[in-house]
Amino acid sequence: MSNCPAITLTEITADKYQSLLATAKAQGLDLAGECGSTTYQEMDFTWQYDAAAASLTIQCTSKPFFVPCSMIESRIRSLIA
Fold it and tell me: Quick check: 58 and 9 in contact, CB under 8 A?
């Protein structure tokens, strides 16, 4: 298992963050609050939302070696767009 660099997303308003939480929940992720950690498909993630800065930082802290970080980042960014 290995980890990936943190991804910081900007221009994440409070409304957009709530929408992201709802999207994550619809895909099987039970995220709550402004920070935390979760496991999804054998990968561990942490997140930190900063409402004042309108930013969200997400990091995959553990993943199978055959899953590239670029694929994880691409998937996260596609959910934000």
Answer: yes
Dihedral sign, Cα of residue 64, residue 67, residue 69, residue 72: negative
| Helix residue spans in the chain (DSSP H) | 14-26, 69-80
pLDDT in the model for residue 27: 83
- How far does Cα 9 stand from its chain's mean position? 9
pTM of the predicted model as reported, rounded to 2 decimal places: 0.88
Helices (H), strands (E): how many in the chain?
2, 4
Let me know how long the chain is. Answer: 81
Q: Is residue 20 within 8 Å of 70, Cβ to Cβ?
A: no
